[in-house]
Amino acid sequence: MFIIKFGGSVITDKAKECCFKQEVVDRLAAELKHANKEVILIHGAGSFGHILAKKYKLNGGYKQKKQVEGFALTQAMVQRLNNLVLASLHNHDLPAVSIPPHAVLSLSNHKLSRVDYSIFQKYLDLGFMPVSFGDVALDKKLGFSICSGDLLVQLLAVHFKPEKVIFVLDEDGLYSANPKDDRNATFIERVTVKDLDKLTTRLNAHADVTKGMEGKLYTIKQIARVGVDTILLNGNVHNRLYDTLKGKKVRHTIVQGE
Ligand code: IPE
Fold first, then answer.
1. What is the Cα–Cα distance from 225 to 39, expressed in whole angstroms?
2. Is the pTM for the entire model greater than 0.90?
3. CATH number of 2-255: 3.40.1160.10, 3.30.230.70, 3.30.2320.30, 3.30.1360.60?
4. What is the pLDDT of residues 7-43, one digit of tens each?
5. Residue nearest to atom 8 of ligand 1 (CA)
6. For residue 157, how far is its CA from the centre of ligand 1 (angstroms)?
């Protein structure tokens, strides 16, 4: 089984509110269908979630009444994005079912407090493709906060120990430094967690409420600790996902499980 995350910057235009990249999602859905693997799919919120979540400061938890409106709006918007993703998967004959995080888990000070993994397992056993996503969720300490898709991937990977975790990004993988402002930055094909610690990585310039690449590296380290490999690949390049699922050698980064 594979756990795959479609990053919000691949499936939406992060700069424009609620801008869904239909063609990209349709192509990725076709690649998933073609590869014919057992998959739990997670997708990010992109511009359906981050803009509102930032506006209403949802990740800091409940502080004022106005945020309640923001929470409700954000939940509706990410659900709308989820419906768009599901429709694309269904159009490609993939038996996708939605598992909204706000309904199956709760957090405590941003960390997981409770999650029902059995729902994912039961759907898998019946041949479905469970699909979950970055969402707002109840938080025991903070009232509410954000459950990022990366946190979901981490929890599910540690629990299910999939064959591989794949992050579908809008860049080829990891570099030794930010390639945009360091000409000596080199592409990393394979790396261990120990080497990861030495890396200078770039933080996303976007208005992300979850922590961009820094947060992702933390997630990947937790996954590596349970012995699972993580692959980072470019979802904007045709067949990188398909080829990776088929075990073909393409340009991507593998972070080796320990
Ligand atoms: C964020 O989810 C969820 C909300 C802002 C509500 P992610 O952190 O997984 O989303 P992307 O991949 O960065 O867009």
1. 21
2. yes
3. 3.40.1160.10
4. 999 999 988 999 999 999 999 999 999 999 999 999 9
5. 148
6. 18
pLDDT at 207: 39
Residue ranges lining ligand 1, Cβ < 6 Å: 7-8, 44-46, 49-50, 53, 74, 78, 134-136, 146, 148-150, 208-210
Evaluate whether 14 touches 205 at the Cβ level (below 8 Å). no
Structure tokens at 129: 């493709």
Q: What is the structure's pLDDT at 212?
A: 62
pLDDT in tens, 56-96: 999 999 999 999 999 999 999 999 999 999 999 999 999 99
